[in-house]
Amino acid sequence: MTITTISYKLRPFCLCKSDPSIDSATMSNVATKVAVVGSGISGAVCASALAKNGISVTLFESARGPGGRMSQRREISEDGKELLFDHGAPFFSVSNCDVLKLVHEWESKGLVAEWKENFGSFDCISKKFLDNDQEAPNKKYVGLPGMNSICKALCNETGVESKFGASIGRLECLDDEKWSLTGLDGKNLGHFSGVVLSDKSIASPRFTHVTGRPPPLDLSLTPELALKLQDIPVSPCFALMLAFAEPLSSISVKGFSFKNSEILRWSHCESSKPGRSTASERWVLHSTANYASGVIAQTGLQKPSSATLTKVAEELFREFQSIGLNIPQPFFMKAHRWLVHLD
């Protein structure tokens, strides 16, 4: 995950009647009360920035807590062990000086730390690690104690009112230059002079596939936004969470991409990150988008069944074992589906 995409994501999703394409940096000049939909890194950073500029911000999140693709998953093994996984974005890197200043601020607050390990790629044909990017120019950062820690802190800042478990069912532009938000349950969530949407699904047909209802935002109201949304790639991914009793000594790096695999794209050792428990060896695998798309073509966009996730977990782990690194059986294994690719 590259954190410089924050500004790219925010601009297309800022809605203000006077200018549908206005960005968050200038919204303070035309909006005094703003709703931010989504508490992933884009939504959380935007909410924080707006609040610091004196704007009244209400953040709406359909999930129980913040994080989005930077969420941390808590699982309990059969023998009662607590297992924590960053099953979405494994880390983020920074290539923008302004964003780097923000990351250094988070670092000073103990919210992030550099992940100083060896990384590389593995060729599934030659069965060899091809390179090591330890000296790569962009450092890898992780949240402390989990990737969602950054979003949690930002959503709790002064001036940000966060409402979790609040799904948006409808966005309507009113005649008095206000936006009306209605919950999926029909509850009136208030009127706002500006809205920031950090999730493309709010205006995507996939919203209908999942909920059976039309998308909350009618894109005919914002034709400029409709054009920009076409340029934002959206593709699925499955994550596989694994826990082993012993370290995987056959793997010399703590994170690597897969080459020449139609199923696996990325793997990392969760327990090697700073601030994580080392009581067990935990790994997270990410599938390729093509593999995930194939599964969805057969099962649909609705929430995957337990049987589907079990089958996916078995297929991903079978591919992991087949690469020739003597991977033992884990004592915990579980799959999760993401509908956004984790670049």
TrEMBL record:
The leader peptide range reads: none
Q: What InterPro entries does its record include? A: FAD/NAD-bd_sf
So which domain of life are we looking at? Answer: Eukaryota
Which Pfam families does UniProt cross-reference here?
Answer: NAD_binding_8 (PF13450)
Task: Give TM segment ranges.
Answer: none
Entries under PANTHER family matching the protein:
FAD/NAD(P)-BINDING OXIDOREDUCTASE FAMILY PROTEIN, FAD_NAD(P)-BINDING OXIDOREDUCTASE FAMILY PROTEIN
What is the protein's given name?
FAD/NAD(P)-BINDING OXIDOREDUCTASE FAMILY PROTEIN
